[in-house]
Amino acid sequence: MANKILVTGGAGYIGSHTVVELYNAGYEVIIVDNFVNSNLEVINRINEITHQKPIVYPIDLLIKDDLEKVFSQHKFDGVIHFAGLKAVGESTQYPLKYYKENILSTINLCDLMNKYDVKNLVFSSSATVYSPENEMPVNEEGKLRPSNPYGRTKLFIEEILRDLYQADNDWRIVLLRYFNPVGAHESGLIGESPKGIPNNLMPFITNVATGNLKVLKVFGSDYDTVDGSGVRDYIHVTDLAKGHVKALQKNVNPGIRTYNMGTGNGYSVLEVIKAFEKATNRKISYEIVDRRPGDVAVSFADPTKAMEELHWKAEKNILEMCRDAWKWQSKNPNGYN
Ligand code: UFG
Fold first, then answer.
1. Annotated catalytic, 150?
2. How far does the centroid of ligand 1 lie from the alpha carbon of residue 230, in Å?
3. pLDDT (0 to 100) of residue 294
4. Is 127 touching ligand 1 by the criterion CB < 6 Å?
5. Dihedral angle over CA of 64, 70, 74, 76, nearest 10
6. Exposed e or buried b for every residue in 244-258, given b needs 16+ CB within 10 A?
């Protein structure tokens, strides 16, 4: 019998790509998702790619009784916890909503994992937990100081999980700190489908390329970087998804371990635009505007620890990220809608 994994938020962008890689690695998958930021169609697409159909529970982790039904029906070997709100700007407007949804849902989940003796967790954290004062590349020992409520929910959950492990050394926990996931499955069947106007760079670029949006605003040209625009560590979502499988496979002994998930390379906004144009043969019109409040100049990972301990390395380059983002968007101009 294959190992059975519960994936919370498994219908979302990173979740759905991870479900595909779990199937490729021979796992059995159960999804819980409240579909506030995802679409049931993704399940058909996962089926097209893998010829497998996950059981899906359309429930909210805040309603613990609903989640308990799932635990009572299945014996899980582990949990990958993606579910949560993730818009930085919205989190500054509605902090309580973010603290409630992200933190309480994680507490409900861990309570039930305790009760049903499933003490094996991979948690979706973020590079946003790091202080902007760290020198780049930043490793897992970097100073922690998120600059917005969304980032603080990730840090607080990390702290809760560290306390949980201190209190009960049976737990096996991996915290994965993602840098900037982009791209899509190479089939073009699943990808990122943000509701409304995208906040993030890559979906904005692909929407300019389809003509859905007119012009990309480049936030800032006076950062101390190669060309003045902000630098980030973009990572192909399939590489990131494979990192979760490696984390699960590694998570056999009790402990709490933290890994950066990035490539170790930084690209500026203007370099990403150029790469996209080269990979897709399309022109992206853009204009340079003021910095976006809250943005840092440069963020990129030191991924050495994940290479050494998980034997994982991001393999896809920026051109492949752009090519696959475009394949997805051009085949699905309105995402799953
Ligand atoms: N950018 C633009 N124009 C846009 C959107 C973004 O120039 O329309 C720039 C940003 O200024 C930044 C870069 O593109 O320099 C990347 O911006 P994203 O919004 O795509 O990503 P961020 O690095 O700001 O945020 C991401 C995740 C967050 C996470 C954060 C920190 O979206 O969830 O990384 O790790 F918190």
1. yes
2. 9
3. 86
4. yes
5. -50
6. bbbbbebbeeeebbb
For residue 158, how many other CB atoms are within 10 A of its CB?
Answer: 20
Give me the DSSP letters along 231-295.
EE-EEEHHHHHHHHHHHHHHTTSSEEEEEEES-S--EEHHHHHHHHHHHH-----EEEEPPPTT-
Domain parsing of the chain, residue ranges:
4-187+235-264+301-315
**Is 219's C-beta closer than 6 angstroms to any atom of ligand 1?**
yes
pLDDT at position 19 is 98
pLDDT of 1: 57
- The CB of 204 under 6 Å from ligand 1? The reply is yes
Q: Which residue bears the tokens 């980032």?
A: 151
Nearest to 262 by CA among 316, 302, 312: 302
From 23, 130, 150, 165, the catalytic residue? 150
- 200 C-alpha to center of ligand 1: Å? 5
Q: In this predicted structure, what is the pLDDT of residue 267?
A: 98
Ligand 1 site, residue 221, Cβ cutoff 6 A: no
> Which parts of the chain register pLDDT below 70?
1-2
Token digits for 314?
Answer: 């991001």
From the number of C-beta atoms within 10 Å of its C-beta (0-12, 13-18, 19+), residue 115 rates as: exposed
Predicted local distance difference test score (pLDDT) of residue 337: 85
Determine the Cα angle at 98 with ends 124 and 207, to 5°. Answer: 70
Counting from 1 in the atom list of ligand 1, the atom nearest the Cα of 291 is 11
Q: Is 169 helix (H, G, I), strand (E, B) or coil?
A: coil
Q: Which atom of ligand 1 is nearest to the CA of 216?
A: 8
Domain 4-187+235-264+301-315, architecture per CATH: 3-Layer(aba) Sandwich (3.40)
- Which pairing describes strands 231-232 and 267-268: parallel, antiparallel, or unpaired? antiparallel
